[in-house]
Amino acid sequence: MSTAIVRIVSELRSIVAAWRREGLRIAVVPTMGALHEGHLSLVRAALAKADRVIVTLFVNPRQFNNAADLAAYPRTEHDDAAKLATVGAHILYAPNAADMYPQGFATTVSVGGVSEGLCGTFRPGHFDGVATVVTKLLLQTGADLAFFGEKDFQQLQVVRQLVRDLDIPIEIIAGPTVREADGLAMSSRNARLSLAERNRAPRLAEILVQTARRLSSGESVQRALSLGRDAILAVGFSKVEYLELRADSDLAPLHTLDRPARLLVAAWLGQTRLIDNFQVPLPRAAALHQTAA
Ligand SMILES: Nc1ncnc2c1ncn2[C@@H]1O[C@H](COP(=O)(O)OP(=O)(O)OP(=O)(O)O)[C@@H](O)[C@H]1O
Ligand SMILES: CC(C)(CO)[C@@H](O)C(=O)[O-]
Ligand code: BAL
């Protein structure tokens, strides 16, 4: 099966309307392309729950707070379409920036609360860009279900909040973080790592797991986080933007482990910014080795 590429929203809407007349259930998986097993796991999960799956591919300029990051973002649409055909996605919706943001576009969706802190502090404007484009993509596709990865845990919470607040009739479903065999969370940006950096990168997940274990065995939050930061720097990361413990449900800051929590990190390895997170207590002993199916 091949995956049809659609660029124009009116064309997408006609296809979706025809599916609706047949009573089909529709899912959307928003992406910025350069697809890897993390994305494909979401597509497979969507195919298991819906009759038709739309994958969106749009490198959204509004969510990049750094021009160099936008310029370096990988663009591999041809390969992405081939991967989607293998998995069985029905449509690749890849709109142009000029159609998404025509002259005179003047609306921003800004989500309070969960957008603040963590990546919200270090990527100013990022979550406004994400919330604006996700709102558009959900409304353009009119899907019943939308799939997002836990790798971008704060983004997932931002999307849940905006869907609730704006009464968008869609169910948000989270997929677990897919990891390389050595534990590194898959990310399109991993391709920017040099060989030496790539060898070092899995230490980030290892240190998170170690920190999660320390917290579960009664270490104070302050000390566990401080040891974690030191360890990340000691293995060669140049900067830790944040290493924080937050409530799993709403990302409220936690000073004690008194409810299900999430340990979240963002750190720089050379020129590459990596993020990762784990639930605390860890859901199961082999959490680090949850690799692609
Ligand atoms: N390793 C992963 N496991 C599960 N889901 C993932 C993974 N990586 C990305 N996703 C999810 O795929 C969707 C699209 O993400 P995106 O296209 O930004 O990919 P990415 O690899 O995260 O790229 P980036 O370099 O921008 O971080 C998001 O919902 C994201 O959370
Ligand atoms: C959700 C998203 C596709 C919005 O541009 C992007 O932030 C991403 O790829 O995670
Ligand atoms: N994966 C989230 C999109 C971004 O980093 O801009």
From TrEMBL:
Q: How does it assemble?
A: Homodimer.
The record's active-site residues are 39
What's the protein called, per UniProt? Pantothenate synthetase
- Name the chemical reaction catalysed here: (R)-pantoate + beta-alanine + ATP = (R)-pantothenate + AMP + diphosphate + H(+)
So where does ATP get bound? 32-39, 149-152, 178, 186-189
Extra facts:
The reaction proceeds by a bi uni uni bi ping pong mechanism.
Alphabetically ordered keywords of this record: ATP-binding, Cytoplasm, Ligase, Nucleotide-binding, Pantothenate biosynthesis
NCBIfam families reported in the protein's UniProt record: cyt_tran_rel, panC
Which molecular function terms from Gene Ontology are attached? pantoate-beta-alanine ligase activity
